[in-house]
Every structure is written in structure tokens, then in C-alpha cells.
Amino acid sequence: MLILLTNDDGISAPGILAMYHALTALGEVHVIAPETVQSAAGHGITLATPILTSRVTIAPGVEGTAIGGRPADCVKLAVSNLMPRRPDLVVSGINSGANVGIHVMYSGTVAAAIEGAFMGLPSVAVSLFLRDHIPTDYDRAAAWLMPVIKGLLDRGLTGGQCVNLNVPAIPVGGQHKGVKFCRQCTRPWDDEYERRLDPRGRPYFWNSSVFHLGQSEADTDVMQLREGYITATPLQFDLTQRQTLAKWQGLP
Fold first, then answer.
1. What is residue 50's predicted lDDT score, i.e. its pLDDT?
2. Which one has a higher pLDDT value, 21 or 189?
3. Rounded to a whole number, what is the distance in angstroms from the first to the last CA of the chain?
4. 207 in a domain, yes or no?
5. Could you give the residue ranges of the DSSP H alpha helices within the chain?
6. Range of the domain at 57
7. What span, in angstroms and rounded, lies between the C-alpha atoms of 60 and 139?
8. Residue 197, domain member (yes or no)
9. What pTM, to 2 d.p., does this model score?
10. Concatenated DSSP letters of 162-219
């Protein structure tokens, strides 16, 4: 199996290295990821400037290609130019922080996986929920994710499909409660902006929001992750609201 591994935290992020080591059990892994952090980049792509590439050593014995662009750029360029053939699987992550609820819409991690699905490839986005009082363990998260990814492949994950996976924050020595297939929470996120003044007295604003998993319906990714489950949410990129379309098509 040929696997494309990317992310939005940058090619030197610890999450991508942990996922690399875990994925080698499935096949040949090519790391092609942004040169710098692209968190919340969404599905942007680079059009007006060149996309620079460079080979980098991520860790002893692990090399990859750093891309001077967005996560979606990485997938486009990898599939069209950089990989020896079309990959059998696209994996994006492990992201530093959960990507659940409406954050899925902003996430560069999810965007990279969806780009793979755009291109007709089976794709998975993987993220780890972080909490200040719980040590971050990417290697453990990667180990927990592997049976889930293998299970998705066994279930028949095919080209054009994308699944969003999130790992809960679990204390040292603890264990997640299992895997829950659940829907995306669509409750709005209330952003907070701090007003400041620059040295010339001109106002500017800084997004001071701190993401936390609030209350939600019991069957959503937000609530199940909060309860200690690995969440799995199949995503689609067809945004057509079909009920409204059918209704309006019948109007004069």
C-alpha cells in the first residue's frame, strides 16, 4: 500500500512523525507536508505565487518533502507530481488539537483529507484533543488510531470517501472508551476578540477564543470525544441542500 501522509501543523510537527512510524506497518509512507504551520488554513490553495519544495530530514532515517503552501496544495502536488503513482490512502495528521464540530470547516487537517477525496482517493483526517492537565502523547494516539484506520479499510473505505477521526485526551495509563461513529456537531462557535491599540493608536483585534468541548447533543462528535471515545465521522464535500433544491425546482 502506498500512503500519502500530510498535515497542517508543518512537516516538523511531532504528530506527523508519530503517524509515520505507525503507518509503516501498512505500507510505504511518503511524507509531503507544509513547510510551516497552516492551522485554520481551511481549503485555501496557492495560485498567485510559486510553490517551493525541499527535501528535509524529519528525524533520523525519516525524510519528507516540505511544501511552501497550504495543506490542500500538498495533496494536489503530491498526487500530480511528487509521488511515484497515485496513493492508495491519504492520511492527514495527527493534528495538535481536536477537529470536531464546526472546526471541521476551518481545519487545514481536514481540508487536506477532503482534497484527497476530491481526487478520488480514500482519505482520513486524524486529530488529538489536547488538555493542559493531561500530557500529550502522539505515539499512543497513533497506536490507538491504527486499528481504527485498518477497520475503515476493512469496512470498504473507497476512493472519494473521507473520514474524520479524533482521539480523546486520556490521562497517563488510561484507555479510551472505544470508537463511536457519530455526526458532526453544527452548533456555532462564539469567537471572542480582544481590542487593542497599536503604537500609533489605531485599533486592531486579536482572536482570543480558547477552544473547549462544550455541551452538545449526545450523538455528536463533540459530545462523544468529550466523553472519552475516539470519534469517527464520515464527511462529504457536496454542500448541496437537496431538500431546498427539490422545493425550488418545483416553483414557477
1. 96
2. 21
3. 53
4. no
5. 14-23, 71-77, 103-106, 108-118, 138-155, 221-226, 242-249
6. 2-185+215-249
7. 16
8. no
9. 0.93
10. EEEEEE----TT-----EEE-BPP-PPP---EEEEE-TTS-EEEEE----------TT
pLDDT attached to residue 211:
65
CATH number of 156's domain: 3.40.1210.10
> pLDDT of 180-228, one tens digit each?
999 999 887 777 889 999 999 999 998 877 666 767 888 999 999 999 9
Please report whether residue 210 resides in a domain: no
How confident is the prediction for the chain on average, in pLDDT? 94
At residue 121, what is the residue type? L
Number of domain units in the chain = 1
In a domain, 129, yes or no: yes
CB atoms within 10 A of CB 62: 15
Based on the number of CB atoms within 10 Å of its own CB, is 213 exposed (0-12), middle (13-18) or buried (19 or more)?
Answer: buried
Identify the helix (H) or strand (E) that includes residue 81. Answer: none
Amino acid at site 239: L
